[in-house]
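FORM 7B - TANDEM STRUCTURE REPORT

SECTION 1: FIRST PROTEIN
SEQUENCE AND TOKENS:
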Amino acid sequence: MAYGDAPADKDLKAAWDRFCDDLKQAGTYAFKDANPPNPLQRADAFRFLTQNLGQAFDLALETNDPAFPQIHYFTTPTMKLGGDVSDFTYRQAWISGDHTYRITGKRGTARWLNVTVQGPRPETIPGTEWPSLHEPFGDIPQANILGSQLETDAEGNFELFIGGQQLASNWLPTTPGSRKLFIREAFDAWGETPTPLTIERVGMDDPRPMPSPERITEAMDWAGRFVTGLMEQWPEHSWLTSRGVCDPHTLNAFPADKSANDDADARRGRMAAHMIWRLRPDEALIVEMDMHEGFWIFGMGGAFMGSMDFLHRPVSYTPARTKVDTDGVVRLVIAHNDPGVHNWLDTQGFSDGNLTYRNLLTQSPAAFRTKLVKRAELMAHLPAGTATVTREQRAAMLLERYRAIKLRFGI
């Protein structure tokens, strides 16, 4: 038995060859202008690609049958996809408006949970000529429910129905174009617990069909578009289309008049702003924000806007884990090595990267200020009484982070 003996051999080989060509093309984007020409970040671009290659067929094939839904983590400590924030978990499930689904879970203690029904993915962003972001992104939020709106029993258990007959509570509507559930959970204090979730189609009573050659061919083509899209479009797509992202030539400053905060953002349950930073080895960047109520997150990302190594490094801060100065200002310090300041954001050796701000729960405005200083003169630019840590305290903080992140993902 050999190639050509089965009727689908030619089509399957052609699809695989196309996928391999797509993968080869995706690798060329590691050398794009947006990725700094230093060895560490060139290598990180290929890591970004291989991490997502590892999930390409989970998204394209293994979980991609709306009649047999599965909830899939598409970012983890070892798998990043552009725009993810360190203190979020991101899950999705492919669905269809033709079916009704039941999600069961037990509410954890994470401060924020949002389940969103996503609609059709247009070729271009509505009202513009800009292309939609690559799969599995680019679709339009249709309806959402926050964790605070879920009705649970005394132990926190709940059922949430998606589609079908309208219910008084714990229900989200769908439309004929509904195609995905997007589930995000955000954590504040270390030790907060995740919300385990499982999904099933109501009336599911047969085994899932085995994938046909045609289905495998579709999956290969989808996976090829996925790996080329993520390498080609991050970060430039956000530079072009997001109101929360600064012009890429405006370094080390948040946009003064741009924030992501429209109806779609409301269904996503957040406001957002974004800064592109660049630091020489002898520099540090002080980021200031007037403290405000609510739940906010600062998270560091690399050149492709994937989150940094949040399992092992201090690359994110939230209210419960941040020291606020006596003048009511949150001051974070981006530096290449530990300055002994409590609110240190580690660059993990990158010369360039991204800092993303998320504001959840409230519409409180944020006022940002930044100051680029010489690393050796950093403490002279910080107020007296700035919270500092010893080497031993930093080690304890990193271990606390490590254990908490592993708890979130069950690893």
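SECTION 2: SECOND PROTEIN
SEQUENCE AND TOKENS:
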Amino acid sequence: MACSTASLAATLLAFALLFQACLAGRRLTALVQEPAITMKYHRGALLSGRIAVNFIWYGNFSAPQRAVITDFVSSLSAPPAAAGQPEPSVATWFKTARKYYANSKARFPALYVGTHVLDSSYSLGKRLTDGDLLKLAAKGAPSRAINVVLTADDVAVDGFCMSRCGTHGASPRSRSGRFAYVWVGNPASQCPGQCAWPFHQPVYGPQAAPLTPPNGDVGADGMVISLASMIVGTVTNPFGNGFYQEGSADAPLEAATACAGVYGKGAYPGYAGSLLVDQASGASFNANGAHGRRYLVPALVDPDTSSCATLG
């Protein structure tokens, strides 16, 4: 089941506009660098084998927006050379999550793009609850799947912008199986300064110029950051008893969310770190993806070093 939004009290500090999450999501908080970040395995089941990533597009998404997000998922498990991903690549970034499986009996899952469900008619309205998100997620596969619900920029979701930018959780057990799910909202018109940073000026903290998004879409590129965090959280902690930092199980820090706001070396509150820049467009990125795409992905806790690892 998804983590309660009541456990996600957001903190806005004047010197930081950064993102964290519990099992339920990526949220705003201050960056606190610990000498060592230890992710403990709580002995729960992990995903393994071939896992379909199914998309439920709720509301209006353009074809280019869908391509940006779908190509990101395609980049996760594809061999960099075969997928045309020069280093640093999304696939190499995702390999850090593989290290967690060395401490379990499960085999690291092979993710692949599954089905697409388009719900442009807003079948559940334009204001959604956590229960609605689960209903939408159920439109994907009933098992061996991560069903990703993506809501358009005119859809309000409980807690969106106030305490979270995305969530992940799992369906209840049933005879047909159990699926993991992710929700991410498009922040372009509701809270770009919160959920699309560093591609938009923050609401609080240092007011440095925003970075140019690598795919030219503040909302879609912001969604990729949240989606990346939530997919890693799903793979390493799919049912709430996998890998997370010791503390409250209701609001655990996971492999990506423990490194909130860190994208490159030298990052600090209000500064995303040293990134690559496309000389033609001026866009900032840190990972190459499939089909010539470029993305900004969050740092992940490397279990070998107990620290936030960045590409490059």
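SECTION 3: OBSERVATIONS ON SECOND PROTEIN
The chain has one domain: 16-309.
The longest helix spans residues 218-236.

SECTION 4: SIGNATURE
Preparer initials: ____
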